[in-house]
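User: Predict the complex with zinc ion.
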Amino acid sequence: MAGCGKMVITAAWVAPMDAPIIRQGAVVVADGRIVAVGPARRLLADHGHGACRQDLPEAILLPGLVNPHTHLELSTCTCGDSAPGSFAEWLLSIRQRMREGSQSVADPEQSVRRAVELGIQQCLRFGVTTVGDISQQMHVTRPVLRDSPIRAVSFGEVLGLARLRWRFDELLPRAVDRSMQSSRLRIGLTPHAPYTVDLPGYRQCLRVARRRRLPLATHLAETAEEQQFIEHHSGPLRELWEQIGSWVEPVETFRGGTPVAMAQVIGLLEYPTLLAHVNYCEQSDLELLSRGQASVVYCPRTHRYFGHPPHRWREMLARGINLAVGTDSCASSPDLNIVDDLRLLQQIAPQTPSQALWQLATVRAARALGMHDSIGSLTIGKHADMVAFPVARSDGEDPLGAILRDHRMPTGIWIEGKVPVVAQSRAPGG
Ligand SMILES: [Zn+2]
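Assistant: Here is the predicted structure with zinc ion placed in the model:
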């Protein structure tokens, strides 16, 4: 919308996500923000004079999609249809692949940069305008995110216990360094998981997040073995530590039950923490989650990849827990197409209203990132981050359901009212 002070976009449908969908709707954008949403006829009468206009007669306009849990630096990884072995074996194989990858190229940082760029390109192609990105190589990934058009929370990842506890201490100040923060890039913190961060480490992260008002995330209850590890330091996750030669006592155990109970005791549920996965969830955990402020991000295709038992996402929604959907990384998901994750949910639960599914990757995902005041719905005052999908007359009254059923791809994307343009760095060796 170069040269446009104000822009009116009309569409066959507008789906604000925090209100019912509008047939023959429009969105008015000025200075990168939404200034009006409603029926096209009225908005053109009120705002049409002197404004630029774009008509999308065969599209539905939605808020830009939000993928609250991914690891862009793993975007050059590929995965098969299902995990080749146990979760611990998969973790080791990723570690190994990252090591080999960094040893085999002349400039390892350039290959990380390239992975993040490819990840961002995928996001934009699939209609994602905001990501919650977990990053170990934040000194490399954050400059790429800052210079890209995508909106992001960069969760700096900290991990290291037992013999590797020094690593946690080394990573923490880097993770919360805000020097790369910009209007579209927010800095967050993520203690990796209960099998890589000890209890004092978690408490320290929560203290730092509270003090600096940082978005906080962690992987939680991702595998069945996690509880065995936190309670007794036994099982496959302990063996993994032995295998890499880094186990040493003492490490504090948690004897109070499940990983969710552990999160509650630490205080993570009294903070708007983003809990990735929660694939293993007892009845008592649902109770704890429903009383807290944390969000759960379920990654359907990654969940299927590891063959976990059915996720309790519908019970979480019914209990008022903020449940959102994410993709996780390309090391456990075929790609970063979050709409395919919604498609999987449509197959699992075909009776779920289409809008409720799309909310998992818009309003609810924005809330999981603590950004619900500025993105996630087509609402006056929010950023004009939007995506358009094709619709057909035969869709009837449920175009949102038809997009999922027919595997349609986005036909338009805007961030702050502008079509994002991705600058590319030189390919390694090229
Ligand atoms: Zn993850």
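Confidence is low (pLDDT under 50) at residues 426-430.
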